[in-house]
Amino acid sequence: MTDAQFFIDSARQQYNDFAGGVERHFENVATQLRDWLPEQMRPRPPPPPPSRTLIPATYWNQVNRWVSRNTALSAGILAFVGTGAVLVFIQRSTHVKKRRARKSNNGARTEVVVLAGSPTSPLSTAIAMDLERRGFIVYVITSTREDEEHLRKQLRPDVLPFDLDLIHPDKAEGQMQRFHHFLARHHHAFDGASAHRLTLAGVILVPDISSVAVGSISQLSPEAWSTALNAKILHTITVAQHMLPLVTEFKSKILLLTPNVVSSLRPPYRAIESTVSSALGAFAASLSSELSLQGLHACHFKLGNIEIAGSKQKRDENKKARGMPGTSIRKLHEAMFDALHSSNPSRTWHVGRGSLIYDWIGSWVPSGVVGWMMGLQHAPRNEDQQTPELEDSSSDRSITWEKI
User: Which residue ranges does UniProt annotate as crossing the membrane (predicted)?
Assistant: First the structure.
């Protein structure tokens, strides 16, 4: 043992002896104090530690352990429940949303809509009545006294005829100037009411394409083609041209509604309807491109099978003919209102059963496959063959366009 190690051990021994003596001294003093203090003043001993018993697992503990063991399944359930909740919330918000036209401070109607379509068509009538219920002033373009009488029979004070002579351009220009003056001047809802101005919310074009002639191309007369092209295409384009100055001034929107099923599938014996629908679709695309340069919008509504409210017998016949009910026309009304009031509406809207899927089939599926899907067969080469009879009549097709 070295001298340093001996010195360290000696110092450690002396420290331990000193610490032990101090500890014994304090313990002796504490014992004397306990004996000297009375019983009431003595400090109470600390309480015993609580017994450690196992706490039973609660319901949430069990759920937490199950989630930890089944992470993938738990994530799937959470995603499913979350997505369902979001969809329910969106659906309820859509139904709760009130679609009403803007009014002035005194409650007067201020938004005007011009509807260009056959006033006697069930679709045009349904659109006009719905827009009027939502607070619009609806002007329906008429060309005959029968059209005006039909509108007056509806007994709607804010569904009014708009006489626009499309045959004589000079007369039509004067009629448009008077209509522009009517929109630009101040109006009073009642005596003493504050003045308010009207605005053109939009122009809605609804050509009744379903009323065109049906048959083989070899049997369709030139008069049938001329009538369809003039009454459906040229009439629609002319109305849009007359309305464009007002649309530009009031920053309005143009809505064009066309059936989409026949124009997408292009079945036999529907040459006129397919041609008219395709031409109007091209016109809508060009019109939308031109208006977009001015910050304006034109929307093309491609319609599928839509059920229009009518007699119960009529609806039952339609369901039997198609085997599947169509989309409620309420969806079309809501989509049109959203397009009129949206700051940046879509160019193309698909509304009605079959509109989107038939558009996709006609664009991507080969024509041979489409013909096989529709059950088409090769007809015998007989010059005396007749055009097959179609199930639907012209009046029936004006209500529901999809019969394929």
Answer: 72-90
Domain ranges in the chain are 111-376+389-397
Helix (H, G, I), strand (E, B) or coil at 211: helix
Which pTM was predicted? 0.69
Residue-by-residue DSSP string for 338-399: HHHH-SS--SEEEESBTHHHHHHHHHHS-HHHHHHHTT--PPP--TTPPPPPPS--HHHHTT
- The number of CA neighbours under 13 Å toward the Cβ of 38 is 2
328 by DSSP, 3-state: which?
strand
What's the token pair of residue 328? Answer: 């409620």
How confident is the prediction for the chain on average, in pLDDT? Answer: 79
Length of the chain: 404
User: Each residue of 177-211: pLDDT tens digit?
Assistant: 999 999 999 888 777 778 889 999 999 999 988 77
Confidence of residue 133 (pLDDT cuts 50, 70, 90): very high
Residue 131's closest CA among 340, 320, 291, 323?
340
Tens digits of residue pLDDT in 75-131: 777 777 777 776 666 666 555 568 899 998 888 899 999 999 988 899 999 999 999
Q: Nearest 5 degrees, angle CA 275-CA 329-CA 130?
A: 105
79 C-beta neighbours (distance < 10 Å), count: 10
User: Which residues are 109's β-sheet partners?
Assistant: 103
Largest CA distance in the chain: 137
> Is pLDDT at 297 greater than 80 in this prediction?
yes
The region, left, alpha or beta by phi > 0 then psi within -120 to 50, assigned to residue 37 is: beta
pLDDT bucket at 25, cuts 50 / 70 / 90: low
d(CA 181, CA 160): 17
By three-state DSSP, how is residue 205 classified?
Answer: strand
- Nearest by Cα to 395 from 274, 300, 308: 308
CA 324 to chain centroid, in Å, comes to 22
